[in-house]
Amino acid sequence: MEIAIVLTLLVIAVVLFATEKVSVELVTLLMLIILAGLRIISPEEAFAGFSSDFIIIIASIFILSAALEETGILDFAVVRLVRLAQQSNNLMLLTIMLVTGVVSAFMNNTTVTAMFITPLVGLSKRINMSASKLLMPLAYAAILGGTCTLIGTSTNVAVSGYIAKAGLEPIGLFEISGIGVVIFVVGMIYMMTIGQRMLPSHADQELAEEYKLQKYVTEVVVLPDSPLVGQLVFTSDLTTLNLRMLNVIRAKENFLPDFRTRIRANDILLVEGDVDTLMKVKETKGLQIMADALISEDLETENIRLAEIMITRQSNLINRTIKESEFLRRFGLVVLAVSRHGETLRSKIGSIELHMGDVLLVQGAPERFEQVRNSNHIAVLDEFEPVFYKKKKGLIVITSFALAILAATLQLLPLSIAFLSAAVASILLRAISTEKAYNAIDWRLLILIGGMTAFGAAMENSGAAEFLAHGIVQVMEPVGGKIGILAGFVILTVILTQPMSNAAAALVVIPVALRAAMELGADPRAFAIAIMLGASVSLVTPFEPACILVYSPGKYRFWDFIRIGTPLTLLLVIVILVLVPVFWPM
């Protein structure tokens, strides 16, 4: 009975993770409540994952990554290195992937990707190259670079913590570096050859044309007898027509209205709406439509410009609508359209809920873009020039990071204490504020990992792990022996990473794999490490956070990731299956 309950909960969790109808952390906590309530796991087992040292390691890495980002040292480094490589596109791509992979071996790959997007988009504009030629290689390099060390991804740390609780030796800081470097190099060679040829190239277009604004924007003249005269722009009767005000042309001056701007007679209002709404405007007393479509020059003048901005990983705008976030008041920018996963959203802009990686087409005064350029919540995808104000603090963070790695490698300090010390030192030395350090931690991920660790205990206690392991061994052993069974688990992990996070997928599969390894008389650590690496090389779809971040800025389509990522994933799975038995004999 307990086996059926646990497996049913697993299926429900996978479905909910895939649909995102309920947030992943809430799903995780609900599962813990049910499992503990049914006495399948004890309260101690339910919450043991949250008090583990690997949670401290992951949180510390988030803080150190944010501290490096705060100092601007990585922006400075990547632009310098890319400039050196501009003599050849191939050399530039190699440099980008190499630098990204090396940095990602010691930092969260999502953070690394986020930090490098803005410089690379700016670079692509400067050298007249499509950003799509750079951003997918960037994301893949960050993901694969994380396989080179224990701290390269949260998945590695979580798996190491789980197998330690299972009585096995935890994974060493550089134990996986040999196979990780091979995986990274194979991925880099693939992207430099086959992948590069398959990367899309998008021709440069005017932003208004690219977002197809001409079909939705028109000029409306306010006649002297219009009841709109004297009304505030953003609370006027126009709002009842579902029209969105963009800007005002008054006495040949084109300007952006604010909440204090009142409509005057003979104003020309640039408004956005669908065809049906614009037909209603024609029938409204005191208004006259000048044009059915707006030429792009009306949206950009010397005092008003268009640009694209991206919602960053740590933004507090995520999961809030444009209206709820008071976007115009906070940033002084008008949102014209939202690009998400290859789709452009233009209707009911105020009610659009913002997600990480969304790219917004915005309009505003040039000085406004300068003011928000260093915001932690949005990134301006434009020409990029690093402002390097915190060189000393950057060196302090790098030194703290390096000392933590050295102390852990020489076993002078436990890994968790070493990285916690480095994170605390960064805060004490004011490389990052306490508030920003807290905001840098991905609490959802920590809840997910802590909860899925407890779910692993439920798999063991209920007998579900043994039941599944026995079934998989019976089916797969006659087909391919130990390697065949290992291949089955790795492929299962790759499949599960599509609806679930990498860490969650690995933590679901590992209890079953450890049981299967024991039944076969194989090395359980070898199985665990193969599954861990399999979770990190799953590049079939763009659901990995690093891929989500580059999706819209690179103007990619879903199919681009499938046709480029699927062959690479299969190639890397083969590398894992060949090399894991070499590094960890089974």
TrEMBL record:
It is found in: Membrane. InterPro entries: Cit_transptr-like_dom, DASS-Related_Transporters, RCK_C, RCK_C_sf. Its main location: membrane. GO terms for biological process: potassium ion transport. GO terms for molecular function: monoatomic cation transmembrane transporter activity. It is a multi-pass membrane protein. Residues 205-287, 294-378 form the RCK C-terminal domain. GO terms for cellular component: plasma membrane. The chain crosses the membrane at residues 54-79, 91-117, 138-159, 171-192, 394-410, 445-465, 485-514, 526-552, 564-584. Pfam families: CitMHS, TrkA_C. Keywords: Membrane, Repeat, Transmembrane, Transmembrane helix, Transport. This is Di/tricarboxylate transporter. It comes from Pontibacter virosus.
